[in-house]
Amino acid sequence: MRLLLVTEDETLAAALMARLQSCGHGARWQREWPAPAPGSDHEMLAIDGALWRAAEATGFAGGGESVPTMLLEEPGLSPAGSAARLEALVESVLAWAERTALGAAQRLMGGELLVDLDRPFIQLNGAAVELTPLEWQVITLLVRRPDRVVSRQEIAQLIGGDATASDNAVAVHLYNLRRKLGRHAIETIRGRGFRLRP
User: Fold this and answer.
1) Among the listed residues 40, 35, 70, the one whose alpha carbon sits nearest the alpha carbon of residue 55
2) Can you give the pTM of this predicted structure?
């Protein structure tokens, strides 16, 4: 996930950025809202409530945001705020961001399969599934093209770096994925290729 943090509080920003990055999440910090310059590819926004309301009062509420947003309503974190309150706020933002990211992940196979390609994370019937790097690449290819069939040649190119990977190599990877995700998880469309069951 990629989170944009907007706050004038340097103590909060430093603690939250360090925590998010230690968990493998992307994060960017800015002091002003709306941003003086356009452009961030963030997927979530955590913003100081006072900055949000000030923007709202001048007609810039949300700055055109359509991403999940959390208002930070913990005044006086620095310099007088306690370390415990700071840590509690950092943990609450992290928990919200992770719940939001998980909720945005793609559900397939009637909701039995949850795939989040950004983290990366995959869950079958509530249990995490471990995939090899090549298996992740194949799943990524299938998930990103849910409305079309992926050809054997495309998977061969992904596995071998060109279209010459053997049919056996493709079959082995698909077999292992079906073993982990269920034998009906990946459909074979005869004469055309494969797709992940929606």
Assistant:
1) 35
2) 0.50
